[in-house]
Amino acid sequence: MPQPLVGKIQYDRVKGTPVARPRRTALEQAYVVEVVKGLGVTMRHFFKNTKSMFRGERPDAVKDPLSEGITTLAYPEQKKVYPPRFRGVHRLTLRNDGSPRCVACLCCSTACPAQCIYIEAGEYPDGDNRRGYERYPVKFVIDELRCIFCGYCVEACPCDAIRMDTGRHAVPYDSREQFIYGKAMLMSLESADGKQLAENPRHEPPDPTHPGIDRLKGAH
Amino acid sequence: MPSIKLDGQDIPFEKGDTIIRAAARQGIEIPHYCWHPGLSVAANCRMCLVEIDPMQNRRQIVLDVLQWDAAKGDYVPGKKPKLEPACQAECIEGMVVKSDTSPHVALARKNVQEFLLLNHPVDCPICDQAGECKLQDYWLSDQKTAKRMRDEVVHKPKAVEFGDTIVYDAERCIVCTRCVRFMEEVAKDPVLDKRERGNLGEIVLAQGRKLEGHYTMMTDHVCPVGALTTKDFRFKARVWFLRKAQTVCPGCATGCNAWLDYDPRTGEVPRLRPRDNEAVNKYWMCDDGILTHRRVNEDRVLHGYLGRGTKRERVNPGQALTAAAKLIKGGNVAIVLSAQHSTEDNFALAQLGRALGVSELYLSRLKDWDGDDILRDNDHNPNVRGAQQAAGDLKLRPLSELSGAKVVLALGGIADVDDETVLALAEAKIVTIASNHGPLTLNADVLLPAASWAETHGTFVNRQALEQEFHAGARPSGESLPGWDIVSRLARTLGQAIGFTRYADVRAAMGPRNTTPNAAPPPADAAPPAPAE
Predict the structure, then answer these.
(1) What is the CATH number of the domain that holds B76?
(2) How far apart are CA B285 and CA B429, in angstroms?
(3) What is the pLDDT of residues A24-80, one digit of tens each?
(4) Angle at the Cα of B391 from the Cα atoms of B493 and B335, rounded to 5 degrees
């Protein structure tokens, strides 16, 4: 019958394997010699690396991070290349005339789990070709501090108007206000390969590029 | 009661009922676009097709069709029963109807859906109807496939202004003619009509006319898709962000039942929608009623204020209450109820009046407006009867008869007050409890912020003497509080406890609501409705 553990630690239950103590010579015990030996290893690597550095043989830490030699990154002069589907800060894509592709449907702000997107929808002014057909964001604000970079806004967008392909991670700033990206800021950003236009342009009926038929000029 | 069998379920019906109406009474929806319970039957959308088993000694009409045989890889001859629109087929005792259980009906619905969406622009991101659109709902429940047409869709006029309130988009329109029928049958102004046929069909205005009158915005409400939108709500909100609370329109004495759609994040109320009530407003509301949602966010009194004109300064609510109590203690108080506030607010104020020992009360109200036989009552106030009830045994006199008071304690900012009354009032010290600015707030020495009707629970008594409850939607804006709460706090500051700390307290003191309509005028010995000032 096992004895209760309360008040009594049963040391005899602890079983260990005896390990042989390392044997040291008197020279090793003397300490100084071993320290000098160890420093020797350090110095050998030091001179090896500095030699390759001076000769320009240092491997590229970005392109060849797994090679021998120094592979630390000299950030921010050197930056790591992010994979192509890396989700960076947002940008708003543009149409050919430089206006935002966004139609202020609020799908992104609906999908956003962090509720960091604020949009105010408005109608194009009188005389604009798009008046009546579409609306546009009067305000488009993303709080990049609140954003968790999940990419749901990009998934939700029916117009390819918002993207996270800038290749920029959240940049450090001095104040919180600077993290609040407005419409102009978001429209000024480019994708990692320098694009700003949307991939699926829309051709409205008044537009000369429109492929369809109008009641007024159609054949039916 | 006679009944039919719909998908194996017994559905009782009244004589003259169509299948869709009998089902709707039982809370069963047969998919439909053009049918509306308050309008005539058009049967043009073909969405409500159902399979009706042949009656006794009758032969079923069977059609020869080609059906796709996947195994053979070709079309083969097949048979299909003739389907009938449930909105037009009248119920007959013992009728057996198959709706959701019939594969033929399912296929018909799917094809009708695809057909209606053939030339649809599918601009849901831009469309205000998205989220409450029948095309979206039935696509998800009955279609779930992409259309097979590869051609460019037919383009039709977009963003056509139908008047000062409505914008029409012919591409989104499925030409169900609900709006046409509404204008003709309910608004009695047949200004809309349909032109062309098939995929070129569109709704047009009568030549030289525009959509006008008091019932234009209902065309947007009856539209099952996003073809008609109101300028008032256009691009204002996405409907899935809105929550609803049941409310009563404060526009006139009819007391139309409505849904208060509010944004819980900002407290804004972007629109009102009619709430079905056969006894009061059926399915409709007038434009002015729908637009009363503007009162929630426009011209609001949000803080306590002291002083008149340029001397007016903002103070915290406690200071305002103390200042009001100090004025009222000066004696000779006249108390003004409001026909624009809930019965609860008026009741609390009348109780305070009794505690202060006044023998008569006054009533502020809006002048009569242009009523009609459809919904609008001549009385522009929602709650004259409620104020009369609240006054009880105290005499209720119109505000124009008020004179000689040193202090006026008034409820409600929305009122029409003539110049003579304003001059007479200007000599007195005025304490006003109001949600919106108006003639009684401009000259107020102490202004206390009340919650608007959309932000508090309460009751309006309509012209049928129905006591209709409305619920709070958004939270009270600014530092406002429900009117009865302010009155109760004022009473406590005065040392006249009227004992209301919760809404339930006020209700308990008032007794149960009358919920049976009574169109008879109020008894002659009660205070007569104040004449228009």
Answers:
(1) 3.10.20.740
(2) 40
(3) 889 988 999 999 999 999 999 888 878 877 787 777 777 777 777 677 777 888 777
(4) 45
Tens of pLDDT, residues A165-209: 998 888 789 999 999 999 999 999 999 889 999 887 777 656 676
- Cis upstream peptide for B398 (omega within 30°): no
Among all residues of chain A, which has the CA nearest to that of B122? Answer: A158
- Give the C-alpha separation, B132 to A76, whole Å: 51
Give a yes or no: residue B379 inside a domain: yes
Upper half-sphere CA count for residue B420 (Cβ side, 13 Å):
6
- Domain extent, residue B399, equals 304-510
**Prediction ipTM score:** 0.80
SS3 B68: strand
Extract the tokens encoding A175: 């104040």
pLDDT in tens, B5-24: 999 999 999 999 999 999 99
Give the closest residue to B45 by CA, choosing from B138, B184, B128: B138
CB B491 within 8 A of CB B281: no
The answer to whether the beta carbons of residues B175 and B194 sit under 8 Å apart is yes
* Alpha-carbon span B445 to B306, nearest angstrom: 6
B152: Cα separation from own chain's centroid:
40
Whole-number CA gyration radius for chain B: 28
> Collapsing DSSP states into helix, strand and coil, what is residue B12?
strand
State how far the Cα of B153 lies from the Cα of A213, in Å rounded to an integer. Answer: 8
SS3 of A181, please?
strand
Q: Is the Cβ pair A220, B154 closer than 8 Å?
A: yes
**CB of B382 within 8 A of CB of B431?**
no
Average pLDDT of the residues in B37-61? 93
DSSP symbol at B296: G
List the one residue out of A194, A202, A117 whose CA is nearest residue A159: A202
Last residue of a domain, one of B96, B117, B138: B117
User: Which chain B residues are Cβ-neighbours of A220 within 8 angstroms?
Assistant: 154, 200
Interface contact A97, partner B, CB < 8 A:
no
Q: Which residue has the tokens 């003619």?
A: B177
Place of tokens 């080609």: B66
Contact B478, B303 (CB under 8 A): yes
Q: Which amino acid is at B334?
A: A
Rounded CA separation B17/B25 (Å):
10
Listed residues B83, B117, B151: the one ending a domain: B117
Beta bridge partners of B305: B314, B447
Question: B318-340 as b/e, with b when 16 or more CB fall inside 10 Å?
Answer: eebbebbbebbeeeebbbbbbbb
Number of folded domains that form chain B: 2
Residue B288 lies in a domain: no
A-interface mutation test, from B136, B151, B155, most A Cβ less than 10 A away: B155
Burial of B200 (C-beta count, 10 Å sphere; 0-12/13-18/19+): middle
Contact list in B for residue A200 (CB cut-off 8 A) is none
Q: Which of B126, B130, B155 sits opposite A205 (nearest CB)?
A: B155
Q: What is the predicted pLDDT for the residue at B241?
A: 93
| CATH, residue B398 | 3.40.50.740
What does the buried/exposed string (b/e) look like for B205-238 if buried means 16 or more CB atoms within 10 Å of the residue's CB? beeeeebebbbbbbbbbbbbbbbbbbbbbebebb
Tell me if B255 is assigned to some domain: no
Query: Is residue B41 in a domain?
Result: yes
Residue for token digits 């106030």?
B381
